[in-house]
Specification:
Layout: H1 9-37, H2 40-46, H3 48-62, H4 65-78, E1 81-86, E2 89-93
Antiparallel strand pairs: 1-2
Length: 95
């Protein structure tokens, strides 16, 4: 018994079986490739010192560390010698 396009039922079954085999091999290839691509822990373990330094640097910058450090260093350069203190007030001698 033929179909409208002239193919028999056996031809269609054979094509479906071939497509199923191709799909199974493609899924297997995808699974084996994903195991290597998603191994984040292995990649991180290999580059742990670099990752730790990057995380510390990013945390320092995000916490405002550069600006705070620069303000501290700039203030220390402008301060003179403290001559006297009365409560919150200071008498500073500048040269």
């Amino acid at each position: 018994m033929g179909t409208r396009n002239g193919r028999s039922a056996e031809d269609v079954r054979r094509d479906i079986a071939a497509e199923r085999d191709q799909l199974a091999s493609a899924v297997e290839d995808l699974r084996s490739g994903l195991g290597e691509a998603t191994d984040v822990a292995g990649k991180l373990r290999a580059n742990l010192p670099v990752a730790a330094a990057g995380a510390m640097s990013a945390g320092f910058v995000l916490a405002g560390g550069i600006g705070a450090t620069m303000r501290y260093l700039a203030r220390r350069g402008r301060e003179g010698d403290e001559k006297a203190r009365f409560g919150p007030f200071k008498l500073i001698g500048r040269s």
